[in-house]
Amino acid sequence: MARERSYQCTVCRWQGTAEPVDAGDAAPCPRCGVYLYPTSWARTWGVALLLVGGTLGFVFAAVRLLR
Ligand SMILES: [Zn+2]
Q1: Structural domain boundaries of the chain?
Q2: How much distance in Å is there from the Cα of 15 to the middle of ligand 1?
């Protein structure tokens, strides 16, 4: 089953398509062996991290105000 996805390595700057090796769509970089996630996933996780960071910031601000 060939379901190639586009990847971008943050370590060696390799860009291209590879076949995922697990259910999380991760694949090892063909050049340096670092585990990569599809570029679309990176974007999704970037948004998720922003949301988590915003929530944490709000919670910390609320805790400070309630003290
Ligand atoms: Zn790499």
Answers
A1: 5-66
A2: 8
Helix (H, G, I), strand (E, B) or coil at 19: coil
User: Which residues surround the ion ligand 1 when the cut-off is CB under 5 Å?
Assistant: 9, 11-12, 14, 29, 31-32, 34
Interval between CA 30 and ligand 1 midpoint (Å): 7
pTM of the model: 0.54
Within 8 A by CB and 6+ apart from 2, the residues are 19
Q: Which two tokens stand for residue 30?
A: 């063909």
pLDDT tens, 6-60?
Answer: 999 999 999 999 999 988 889 999 999 999 988 776 677 778 889 999 999 999 9
> What secondary structure letter does DSSP report for 40?
H
